[in-house]
Amino acid sequence: MLNIIIFGAQGSGKGTQADKIISNHNLIPVSTGNLLREEIAQGTELGEKVKKDYEAGALVSDEIIFDLIKKKIENHPESKGFIFDGFPRSIVQAKHLDEILKEKNIPVSMVIYLDVNDKELLDRLHKRAIKENRADDTTEAIKNRLSIYREKTMPLIEYYQRQNKIAKIDGLGLVDDIAKRIDEVVEKI
Ligand code: AMP
């Protein structure tokens, strides 16, 4: 089983690269951001609950996120593996993922860390804001999300480095070139 975490700041290209890995390796995508967007778009009770935090660029409660993850994994017992995008976002979430996967005897295989400098990240996020009109791509929410990334999410690099699972990939350049860099690493797992 191949369980990959695609890791990086907002705007690092995680979603784009996750799509490529999914089609090359037949993995089930688990994007907490996408799961939340679906709930919000459908106007479900959960969607209503998370909308305020989502739009402010704040983290949604762990309880809700863990529930979404659990359901998604349990819905795919036959899967060849999962690719996690936007999860885990904190040490608490990473420990929780370890627990879930331990129960199923399927560890995290590798963390692909897409490294992109701050200037490029801001450029990409502002461009995406115009193109996709995402509710959390406002200047204030972007600032908030990047500061949460630095404070809560970046410590995960050390967490997974200690487990020898980080593959740092240069996230600058053409989408296909970055995909090739990732593929070389994934092929070696
Ligand atoms: P993303 O599409 O991954 O950038 O996520 C968009 C927004 O969804 C984030 O800014 C958070 O409000 C929420 N979100 C997504 N994943 C998580 C998570 N693992 N934990 C808490 N909130 C999350």
From the structure above, extract its key features.
9 helices; alpha/beta; 189 residues; binds adenosine monophosphate; 12% strand
Describe it for me?
The protein contains nine helices and five strands; from the N terminus they run E-H-E-H-H-H-E-H-E-H-H-H-E-H. The chain is an alpha/beta fold and 189 residues long. Strands 2-3-1-4-5 form a five-stranded parallel sheet, sandwiched between helices. Helix 1 (14-25) packs across helix 9 and helix 2 (32-42) packs across helix 3 (45-56). The chain is globular and about 40 Å long. Adenosine monophosphate binds next to helix 2 and helix 3.
Q: What is the helix content?
A: 55-70%
Low-confidence stretches: none
Distance between the termini: 10 Å
- The chain-level mean pLDDT equals 94
The ligands found in this model are: adenosine monophosphate
Q: From N to C, what is the helix and strand string?
A: EHEHHHEHEHHHEH
Structural class: alpha/beta
Q: Regarding quaternary structure, how should these chains be classified?
A: single chain
Characterize the biggest β-sheet: 5 strands, parallel
Strand percentage: 5-15%
DSSP summary: helix tally: 9
